[in-house]
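Example 3.2
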Amino acid sequence: MRIRPGSALKTVSAALGALLALFLSGPGASGLGPGAQAPELEGKTWLNGPPLRLADLRGKVVLLDMWTFG
């Protein structure tokens, strides 16, 4: 298989353009754009303790594990 000299550059340019469009696009489905403040956490059942507020988590590493059956 032979790679043409210009084809790799075109592929990289297209990939970078797609990433740039993704980052510069407006708000997503949640209505939040880059740099926007996250909405308060909501949930009635917390498995490992009492419900938390975002202010309680500031400066800490947080792992959100979201899944669904489908």
